[in-house]
Amino acid sequence: MAPILSVRQLEKTYEGGFQALKSVSLDIQKGEVFALLGPNGAGKTTLISAICGLVKPTSGTVTVGGFDIQSDFRKARQLIGLVPQEMPTAPFEIVGDSVAFSRGLFGLRPDRSKIDAILKDLTLYEKRTSQIMALSGGMKRRLLVAKALAHEPQILFLDEPTAGVDVELRHDMWRIVGRLRDTGVTIILTTHYIEEAEEMADRVGVINKGEIILVENKTELMRKLGRKVLTLTLAEPLAEIPGSLAEFDLTLSEDKHFLTYAYDTQAERTGITSLMSALAAAGIRFQDLQTDQSSLEDIFVDLVRNGEASGL
Ligand SMILES: Nc1ncnc2c1ncn2[C@@H]1O[C@H](COP(=O)(O)OP(=O)(O)OP(=O)(O)O)[C@@H](O)[C@H]1O
């Protein structure tokens, strides 16, 4: 199936010469939730803005639903909803009217039943006649989503949807995204919170210094790059790691009670069996053991750090 969004060799050099995007290519399939991760200043907002027509690319192409974002801007833009980072700024506006206004911007009639349905979905219906200034912070965020959905777009961009919100609100936003995904909306979100990508995304892209350095199915990414750590709780504290265990990559905790062994889950042999025999031969007994999978966060930090090291 043709991707719903296709970005080809997109470049953006801002006035003054700063190159914020370097030959970015990316395909997004209909119905997927894609998380774009990257450190501060990596180019996430620039990429979203270029796709949504808010920033003019220096070169490259973007098509949305087959429409070129430059030569067929209206048709392409009609398919896109954008939830910006900033909070709504019209304090006296009435909630329902604000959503109707957003719909009107796309030349659609103010269909009350559609607007009410969107307000209900975002639990804002009770507030439809309130002024925006009377909304809580969480409600204001939901209003931004409602406004972005007002013209029934097929793709929703969320630019750091939960930056600076509390945990409850963050989970609230995740539930909203989950429900939207269930209705077939394609979702692209940028985030600093790895946990957010881990929770919601089907695929993850990492951008660093204007370049996409990785795009991968989330589960696959965690499987491929993930390492596991085996922690042994020792029966008696160990003064030092004996020389007979030197071939294993072991670390002894400062309090001498725990031994950890890092291994690659993808390796043909994890080395655990031989480690166990070597421990027994060295007379080291343990009371307990546990394994931990490295998180998406560990993987991300590694990737960006390696990128720095290789000059990316
Ligand atoms: N209008 C502009 N003129 C010049 N440089 C800009 C402009 N907008 C952004 N930049 C620069 O482009 C780079 C990418 O910025 P962008 O906002 O896309 O990053 P980001 O990944 O969204 O960052 P953050 O996570 O901090 O929001 C930054 O170095 C930024 O300073």
TrEMBL record:
Q: Give an example GO molecular function.
A: ATP binding
- Keywords (A to Z) from UniProt: ATP-binding, Nucleotide-binding, Transport
The record places domain ABC transporter at 5-234
Is Transcription regulation tagged as a keyword?
A: no
Write down the superkingdom of origin.
Answer: Bacteria
Matching entries from PROSITE patterns are given as: ABC_TRANSPORTER_1, ABC_TRANSPORTER_2
A Pfam family per the record:
ABC_tran
Task: Check the record and name the PANTHER family matching this protein.
Answer: ABC TRANSPORTER ATP-BINDING PROTEIN
In the record, the note on similarity to other proteins reads: Belongs to the ABC transporter superfamily.
Q: What is this protein called?
A: ABC-2 type transport system ATP-binding protein
| Organism of derivation | Roseibium denhamense
